[in-house]
Design goal:
With 381 residues, this protein is of the alpha/beta class. It folds into two domains: 17-205, Rossmann fold (3-Layer(aba) Sandwich); 208-363, Rossmann fold, CATH 3.40.50.10490. The protein is built from twelve helices and ten strands.
């Protein structure tokens, strides 16, 4: 068994719960990963109910809302690429009203920070009424979803006080990645050695974030005045990184009250480019896993788009992999992400996007822990 991860608990005080919870992510991730990673504290016991529910299913549906749905979008790529299971991601509020004829006996995975979100709980109950196997990823092991689902996969993020989700989101990604590894092994699509290798890479993520957060925070504080007067921001990413672009945009909307949208990078020229100007900058996720040919190809496409947008006069803030010499040439500002596998980069990338939302909200005088019109758990439709 691998040695437990050593992440020092936070010391000191923070002006806002959201900032504290951003900084708590390495500890929350380490606690979560320890439960689920191959060779972790209770992997076999934890996943046995999931194996019974999903192991032989040929299709999965993920139902979730808000940030949890974005985690599901990243999880879709993880499960399809690693475990070979086709996945559809539904808005939980829409799932209940879809025709039963469109669902070919899938397993249904619901994701919710609170485990009490009204429309996600309704989706879970509808799935069970249809006789489908279910599982729930929540941050509350005794929540309604955790209790009622066929299998429960709790995160170990601890109490999250701020309304904008931060550590609950990254721990959801860690659980989804671990689930994909487990199902890949269960279905005979991955050797034990490969699963353990990917598990070791997952174990490295908390320390990478812990080292990078203070650097990102300083860079983003310096960058914030340049973004504060933006009329809108477009967040761009490909494949699993599209989910992170959507999450970054949502964080900005709910925290800083700025209009933002997340798009697949290749869709920019199919309409949204009409919005791009100096007052509507681009946040471009341009990371790459040099060992993954598909990731390298996607990176080349993003880099070409970045060149085109630069010639167009766009203002670009980029996320690039450490050591990249090309992306800084075509961006106004560049935040470097520690090198990792393509799928695990999603957990790293979202943290600076959370910090952008936080610093812009504070710059604009907003109570970032309690954004207007929002509640932590939407318990009524």
């Amino acid at each position: 068994m691998a040695k437990p991860m050593r992440i020092k608990p936070l010391a000191g005080s923070f002006p806002h719960a959201m900032l504290q919870e951003i900084y708590e992510q390495p500890e929350a991730l380490a606690a979560t990963i320890e439960q689920y990673v191959p060779g972790g504290a209770s992997t076999a016991e934890t996943f046995q109910p999931v194996a019974e529910a999903f192991g032989r299913r040929e299709r999965l549906v993920i139902a979730a809302s808000g940030s949890s749905r974005h985690a599901g979008l990243a999880g879709e790529i993880m499960l399809e690429d690693l475990a070979g299971i086709p996945v559809d991601v539904e808005y939980a509020s829409e799932y209940t009203y879809r025709s039963t004829h469109t669902l070919q006996n899938p397993g249904v995975l619901v994701i919710s920070q609170s485990g009490e979100t009204a429309d996600t709980l309704a989706a879970l109950r509808e799935a069970q009424a249809r006789g489908l196997a279910t599982a729930a990823i929540t941050n509350h092991a005794r929540s309604s979803m955790a209790v009622e689902a066929s299998a429960s996969l709790p995160t170990f993020a601890g109490v999250e006080k701020a309304i904008p989700a931060t550590k609950s989101f990254t721990t959801q990604l860690a659980v989804l990645y671990s689930l994909a590894l487990y199902l890949a092994r269960f279905r005979g699509r991955m050797t034990l050695q490969a699963a353990e290798s990917r598990g070791r890479q997952l174990r490295e993520i908390p320390e990478l974030i812990q080292a990078a957060i203070p650097v990102w925070h300083r860079q983003i504080e310096a960058l914030t005045p340049q973004l504060a007067d933006s009329t809108a921001l477009l967040y761009l990413g490909r494949a699993a990184h599209y989910a992170i672009a959507r999450e970054g945009a949502l964080k900005l909307k709910e925290s800083a009250y700025l209009n933002a949208e997340g798009y697949p990078s290749g869709e920019l020229k199919h309409g949204p480019n009409a919005l791009v100007s100096k007052d509507a900058p681009l946040i471009m996720i341009a990371t790459a896993d040099a060992t993954d040919p598909d990731s390298v190809l996607r990176y080349s496409k993003v880099l070409q788009l970045m060149k085109d947008m630069r010639e167009q006069g766009a203002r670009i803030i980029a996320l690039a992999t450490e050591g990249d010499a090309d992306v800084p040439r075509y961006s106004d500002s560049c935040l470097f992400i520690p090198a990792s596998s393509d799928l695990l980069a999603t957990i790293l990338e979202v943290v600076p996007l959370q910090l952008i939302a936080y610093t812009l909200a504070i710059h604009r005088g907003i109570d970032v822990d309690r954004p207007r019109n929002l509640v932590k758990a939407v318990v009524e439709e």
